[in-house]
Write a structure and sequence with these properties.
It is a single chain. With 407 residues, the protein is an all-beta fold. 2% of the residues lie in helices and 40% in strands. It has one domain: Methylamine Dehydrogenase, Chain H. It has one helix and 26 strands. The strands form six sheets. It has a six-stranded mixed sheet with strand order 11-12-13-15-20-19, with helices on one face. Strands 1, 23, 24, 25 and 26 form a five-stranded antiparallel sheet that branches. Strands 2-3-4-5-9 form a five-stranded mixed sheet, with no helix packed on it. The chain is globular and about 55 Å long. Mean pLDDT is 88; it is low at 1-48.
Length: 407
């Protein structure tokens, strides 16, 4: 699977994409996509009769980057899809209701915050050494092609901890080597951020937290990049940090440090956790990744953190000099590699993952279609049930037709 292109800031970023909405009934083409399966459930303070969940929700066909993540507001029957430089809002029938455009950075994974009714997503501007959580007010997304910078539908919070690790001069030569895996720099191999999810604090203190997972460069020649790194934040007071998205003058308003920093030993993966999701039913966390390439690891595509076990303080694997940190445990189920001790599964979820409860999950499928000679990206959410079987623990609830996958 090819890694999606990362954003470049200002002139270095991708050109701003003018996205034409494909609206049902308006004569424009919409298309489905391809993927696999998703994880367990989420904490839901839902009405007694939330909107029924369809077997598939089409996220549309867009001239954009490929599908990165999904989030659902079940109270209002709304779905959100992120496409690298575009956010799309639909109803549960897949009808587009609005979109946010104009991102020149990299918009990644999404999650819906049940407590404040907003959508949170990872947002990177690597050339500017700036990493944010983007916060979307879904109620204000009321039309297509709303500009991210000028319409006030999105605010951003800066994550200084990520910047420190991304820019860390690990070899002490005084040079920042930039956005590249071919360097000993970037602490823990940090390439930025991607997976985000709301769930309980790992240490059982402080209630619900936003968990943010690092992107990690694929590099087979170092050992300090074999962990997934996760930060936790209490967002209840984040209003004081939130600022409008101003891409030509990136701000640094945000918490100086996370409430907690944790490590999960999985072996190196290609760009870290692509999609992160908490399953309230099992209490576990699902981490969908692009497979790693190190020969000493099984290189699974799905890892599950054991929510029944608290973090244990210990030596973070691969760090020189030795470093103590809070270590998380993988669920001891699924496939197992005795040599590394790593557990996991082979499944989809890298393009989007939502836990729905009752063993049901939306797993994203991403693909491409040709429209008038132009390649466009497609995305859809497909309902699956968790079986726990190996190698793939997800099974579609109803058969779905194949689509052309993302190259």
């Amino acid at each position: 699977m090819r890694r999606h292109p990362r954003g470049r800031f200002a002139a270095l970023f991708m050109s701003v994409v003018v996205v034409s909405a494909v609206v049902a009934g308006a004569g424009a083409a919409q298309a489905l996509t391809s993927s696999e399966a998703a994880p367990p459930a989420r904490p839901a303070t839902l009405p007694s009769r939330p909107a029924a969940l369809p077997a598939r929700i089409d996220g549309g066909t867009w001239q954009s980057g490929h599908l990165q993540g999904m989030a659902i507001d079940r109270r209002k029957g709304r779905m959100y899809f992120s496409f690298t430089n575009l956010l799309v809002k639909t109803d549960l029938a897949g009808k587009p209701l609005g979109s946010v455009t104009g991102f020149t950075g990299h918009l990644g994974d999404l999650d819906f915050n049940e407590e404040d009714g907003r959508v949170y997503g990872s947002l990177e501007y690597k050339a500017a050494k700036a990493f944010y959580i983007a916060v979307f007010d879904g109620d204000r997304i009321t039309r297509m092609n709303m500009d991210a910078a000028s319409t006030g539908v999105v605010t951003t919070v800066h994550l200084q901890e990520v910047v420190k690790d991304y820019t860390a001069d690990m070899n002490g030569d005084g040079v920042f080597d930039g956005d590249t895996a071919k360097t000993p720099d970037h602490r823990y191999g940090c390439s930025g951020i991607d997976g985000v999810a709301f769930g309980p604090s790992f240490d059982r203190e402080g209630g619900t937290k936003l968990t943010v997972a690092y992107g990690v460069y694929a590099h087979t020649g170092r050992q300090d990049n074999d962990n997934q790194v996760l930060l936790q934040y209490d967002v209840r007071q984040w209003k004081r940090y939130e600022r409008p998205l101003t891409e030509d003058a990136p701000h640094t308003s945000g918490p100086s440090s996370p409430d907690g920093k944790y490590f999960a030993y999985t072996g190196n993966t290609t760009y870290g956790v692509q999609n992160l999701e908490f399953d309230a039913e099992s209490g576990n966390w699902l981490m969908a990744v692009y497979k790693g390439t190190k020969p000493g690891f099984p290189n699974y595509s799905l890892f599950v953190l054991d929510g029944s076990k608290r973090p244990v303080r210990g030596a973070v694997p691969g760090q020189q000099p030795s470093e103590q940190g809070q270590l998380l445990s993988l669920v001891p189920r699924g496939l197992h590699d005795p040599a590394s001790g790593v557990y996991g599964w082979e499944s989809a979820g890298q393009y989007g993952l939502i836990s729905l409860g009752g063993g049901r999950h939306y797993v994203a499928e991403a693909g491409t279609v040709q429209v008038d000679g132009v390649t466009r990206q497609t995305g859809r959410a497909v309902l699956h049930r968790w079986t726990g079987l190996t190698p793939n623990p997800f099974a579609p609830v109803t058969p779905v037709p194949p689509v052309k996958p993302v190259p």
